[in-house]
């Protein structure tokens, strides 16, 4: 079995597809090493195991809106696209979404995934309850008020197999999406915070070269006050639908040009109806204190020639702080510096240390679901509560069933 981009061949010797909770518990206690997988959209071995991989797509489907309409509980095989579509039928919505709506709700939260927006935290911040089978095969339910919940919400799959997840929802809302082109660095950088805050969600696409930011995608909530006019900074409004990769067709992107529509059809860049089975790319991303965004951007501009041969496109987003112990945006309002690379793993393995040498000294933390090169020591240094997190993992999984190489390196040093 491989990940979505076919750059990771998993080490599992068995794949189990339990049909109910009893079968799931039996799989967990019957395996020396075991681990759940979602939609396999991660670009590294965070989800790997040398034992049994558990896929939850044969478990009973579940979707239940709370009586007060503030939460929804769904089964662990649910993707954001499925959940958002179902919520729309109830007049409800998720507060934010990733660039692709096809990621698993659980897998995205477990890896600290995020959308964009200075007031929008990572998706795990909206998780309010987890029902999971722990390392002893026991079904446990933990909620936001339970001690240690912030350790489990971005849990890297280390605490057990999540069987159901509850997330906070909001009344459905409409959005528009607009794209501006050619925002020069000199015009942008003194106003970066204002540009990031000028929409519910903002994404800046660049190659870090002298062309500056080639596309600014802004997603506005209908009815929000008038946003900063990017023409005042010299950018031009796009008059046709754009794809971040200029050579790509626009059939797979969500509607632009200011046409209002449901939030789940504007917040992701990729359209819910378009789901590539296989990805010819690799992604990396680093999150650091938003106060150091300009320093980090300047450092990457200095590497533009090194990035160029492998870079498909880079994206700059802002993410609000959250409380999860292992969240890359934990404890600080963050800027997220994303890279979509060409699918050239060997060449990328040589380039990533160069990128990290520029960003890690600025306090950058790599995205848990994307490719990175830094050492376990660097990772431990980035997370002040890592020892406490490891102790809790040990209590939930005393026989180390959910351990894999990445966790061993992280926790055992
Ligand atoms: C096209 C594309 C767009 C993306 N866009 C974004 C983006 O906008 N923002 C962003 O932050 N990231 C983004 N990502 C990265 C993505 O969110 C993460 O890689 C995330 O892990 C994907 O969820 P998944 O279901 O594929 O998880 P998987 O890759 O299947 O698993 C990831 C981790 O979650 C664990 N896990 C999964 N299911 C369970 C379960 N039921 N119980 C316990 N543990 C579980 C696994 O063990 C593993 O450790 C993108 C990736 C792709 C390919």
Short structural summary:
This protein has 413 residues and is of the alpha+beta class. The chain has helices at residues 21-30, 80-89, 105-110, 149-152, 185-188, 192-196, 293-301, 304-307, 345-359, 376-382, 386-396, 405-412, and strands spanning 14-16, 34-37, 52-55, 63-65, 71-75, 92-93, 117-121, 127-133, 139-143, 161-168, 170-171, 174-183, 201-206, 213-221, 236-237, 261-262, 281-289, 311-320, 334-342, 365-366.
Which labels suit this protein?
413 residues, alpha+beta, Uridine Diphospho-n-acetylenolpyruvylglucosamine Reductase, domain 2, Uridine Diphospho-n-acetylenolpyruvylglucosamine Reductase, domain 3, Alpha-Beta Plaits, ten-stranded mixed β-sheet, five-stranded antiparallel β-sheet, 12 helices, 20 strands, binds flavin-adenine dinucleotide, FAD binding
């Amino acid at each position: 079995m491989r990940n979505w981009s076919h750059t990771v061949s998993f080490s599992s010797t068995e794949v189990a597809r339990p049909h109910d909770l009893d079968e799931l518990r039996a799989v967990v206690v019957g395996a020396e090493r075991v681990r759940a997988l979602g939609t396999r959209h991660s670009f590294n071995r965070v989800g790997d195991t040398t034992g049994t991989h558990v896929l939850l797509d044969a478990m009973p489907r579940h979707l239940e809106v709370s009586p007060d309409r503030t939460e929804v509980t769904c089964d662990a095989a649910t993707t954001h696209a499925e959940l958002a579509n179902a919520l729309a039928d109830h007049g409800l919505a998720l507060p934010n979404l990733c660039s692709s709506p096809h990621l698993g709700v659980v897998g995205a939260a477990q890896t600290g995934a995020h959308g964009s927006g200075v007031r929008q935290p990572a998706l795990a911040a909206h998780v309010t309850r987890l029902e999971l089978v722990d390392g002893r095969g026991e079904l446990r339910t933990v909620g936001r008020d339970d001690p240690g919940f912030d350790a489990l919400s971005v849990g890297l799959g280390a605490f057990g197999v999540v069987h159901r997840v509850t997330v906070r929802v909001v009344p459905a809302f409409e959005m528009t999406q607009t794209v501006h082109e050619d925002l020069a660095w000199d015009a942008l950088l003194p106003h970066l915070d204002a540009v990031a805050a000028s929409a519910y969600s903002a994404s800046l696409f660049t190659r870090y070269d002298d062309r500056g930011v080639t596309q600014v995608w802004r997603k506005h909530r209908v009815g929000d006050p008038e946003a900063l006019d990017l023409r005042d900074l010299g950018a031009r409004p796009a008059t046709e639908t754009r794809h971040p990769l200029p050579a790509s067709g626009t059939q797979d992107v969500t509607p632009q040009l200011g046409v209002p529509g449901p939030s789940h059809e504007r917040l992701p860049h990729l359209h819910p109806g378009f789901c590539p089975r296989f990805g010819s790319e690799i992604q990396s991303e680093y999150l650091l204190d938003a106060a150091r965004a300009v320093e980090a951007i300047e450092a990457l501009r200095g590497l533009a020639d090194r990035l160029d041969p492998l870079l498909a496109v880079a994206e700059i987003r802002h993410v609000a702080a959250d409380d999860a112990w292992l969240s890359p945006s934990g404890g600080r309002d963050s800027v997220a510096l994303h890279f979509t690379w060409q699918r050239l793993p060997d060449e990328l393995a040589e380039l990533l240390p160069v990128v990290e040498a520029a960003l890690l000294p600025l306090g950058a933390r790599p995205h848990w679901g994307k490719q990175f090169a830094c050492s376990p020591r660097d990772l431990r240094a980035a997370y002040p509560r890592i020892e406490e997190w490891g102790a809790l993992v040990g209590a939930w999984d005393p026989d180390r069933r959910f351990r894999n190489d990445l966790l061993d390196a992280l926790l055992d040093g």
